[in-house]
């Protein structure tokens, strides 16, 4: 129903289970204000619960499909349509045709590859021609991480795969969370990093203070 002020309301009390992130990232913050606004507009005994993930994030989607949770937040939005028919990244889960998208929240986040300046490369063309021994810190592409999946596909579209890295004397250095990848770059455990969460201070430290080189994506790879 709608209140006299025109704000939608539900008179009955409802319990909602929601799935966010690991606990301290953006999805939990989003669900924090959503739960407050929901409880302000629902019955007096309404309660909400925010679940944290343990893996890379994709487990939140089948949790909703299987009835373990009522809603979740997931990104990137362009992958989500595949969940309905169990296509692409979601082939491992099978079709989930009953899922519904409620909203798309705008964001300015980016996925970016950055390399140490001593490597002397400034583009993917440089990387392919000079074949440096890259140790790339990235989210693990283990079937649960949207970030790891997209990073692997993006690099492969530019000719950079685990096989080519090994030939060049390099490798992928997998982690679970974005800040772990950036920490590896900051501590010299890696000489390259591909990650999102560009609002993190560690990105500013790498690019602005330490002079790491952002590598621009080639249009034909998108």
Can you describe this structure?
The N and C termini lie far apart (45 Å). The protein is 33% helix and 15% strand. It contains 9 helices and 8 strands. It has 222 residues and is α/β, with parallel strands linked by helices. The chain is elongated and about 65 Å long. The strands form 2 sheets. It has a 5-stranded mixed β-sheet, with helices on both faces. A 3-stranded parallel β-sheet has the order 2-1-3.
Q: Count the helices. How many? A: 9
Give the helix level as a range of percent: 25-40%
Q: What spatial form do the alpha-carbon principal axes imply? A: elongated
Describe the main β-sheet briefly. 5 strands, mixed
**Strand arrangement, largest sheet?**
6-5-7-4-8
How many whole angstroms does the radius of gyration measure? 20 Å
Unreliable segments (pLDDT under 50, ≥5 consecutive)? none
Can you tag this structure with a few keywords?
222 residues; alpha/beta; five-stranded mixed beta sheet; three-stranded parallel beta sheet; 33% helix; 15% strand; elongated
TL;DR of this structure?
The protein is 33% helix and 15% strand. It is built from nine helices and eight strands.
Describe the secondary-structure layout.
Layout: E1 15-19, H1 26-40, E2 47-51, H2 60-65, E3 71-72, H3 77-80, H4 82-85, E4 112-115, H5 124-130, E5 135-139, H6 146-157, H7 162-168, E6 171-175, H8 178-186, E7 192-195, H9 201-209, E8 213-215
Parallel strand pairs: 1-2, 1-3, 5-6, 5-7
Antiparallel strand pairs: 4-7, 4-8
């Amino acid at each position: 129903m709608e209140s006299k002020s025109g704000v939608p309301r539900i008179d009955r009390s409802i319990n909602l289970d929601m799935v966010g992130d690991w606990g301290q990232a953006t999805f939990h913050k989003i669900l924090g204000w959503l739960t407050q606004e929901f409880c302000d507009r629902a019955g007096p005994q309404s309660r909400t619960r925010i679940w944290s993930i343990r893996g890379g994030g994709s487990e939140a989607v089948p949790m909703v499909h299987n009835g373990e949770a009522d809603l979740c937040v997931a990104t990137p939005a362009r992958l989500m349509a595949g969940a309905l028919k169990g296509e692409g990244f979601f082939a491992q889960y099978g079709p989930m045709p009953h899922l519904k998208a409620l909203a798309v929240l705008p964001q300015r986040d980016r996925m970016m590859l950055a390399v140490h300046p001593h490597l002397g490369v400034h583009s993917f063309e440089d990387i392919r021609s000079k074949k440096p021994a890259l140790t790339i810190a990235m989210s693990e592409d283990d079937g649960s991480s949207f970030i790891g999946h997209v990073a692997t596909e993006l690099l492969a579209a530019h000719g950079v795969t685990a096989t080519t890295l090994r030939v060049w004397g390099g490798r992928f250095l997998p982690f679970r969370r974005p800040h772990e990848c950036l920490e590896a770059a900051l501590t010299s455990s890696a000489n390259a990093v591909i990650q999102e969460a560009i609002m993190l201070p560690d990105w500013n430290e790498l690019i602005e203070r330490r002079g790491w080189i952002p590598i621009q994506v080639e249009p034909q790879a998108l």
